Amino acid sequence: MIDISFNLSNPFSKRTWKCVWARDRLFGKNSVYSIGIERTKRIIGFSISWLPRQDHTPFDLELSLLGCTLTFGLYDISRHRDDVKGKWEEK
User: Fold this and answer.
1) In a domain? residue 61
2) What percent of the chain has pLDDT over 70?
3) Does 88 fall in a domain?
């Protein structure tokens, strides 16, 4: 697991989270990409995460500047993790 982030938010802002725009599209046989723009309280921020032992093996990237956050994600929609057995579910 890799999860690196830095966020500086405005604690006095009355702004609430809002999705301004989002798009999800299938590419390839089992993969989906997701792009979005969100309204947040963040003044500046950066986040990158890759979680290889979770469902769908997500990769996420977020960049924030002056209350606007750009999000990007890649997901494998065919993989599911069986945590009891400690391996990927068989089909």
Assistant:
1) yes
2) 86
3) no
Structural domain span for residue 59: 28-81
- DSSP lists the bridge partners of residue 37 as 21, 70
In the numeric block, the tokens 């579910």 are attached to: 89
Give the distance, in angstroms, between the CA of residue 60 and the centroid of all CA atoms in the same chain: 4
Residues 6+ apart with CB under 8 A from 66: 43, 44
Token representation of residue 4: 């690196």
Distance of CA 50 to the CA centre of its chain: 9
- Total domain count, the chain: 1
Residue type, 23: R
Q: What is the pLDDT of residues 29-38, one digit of tens each?
A: 888 899 999 9
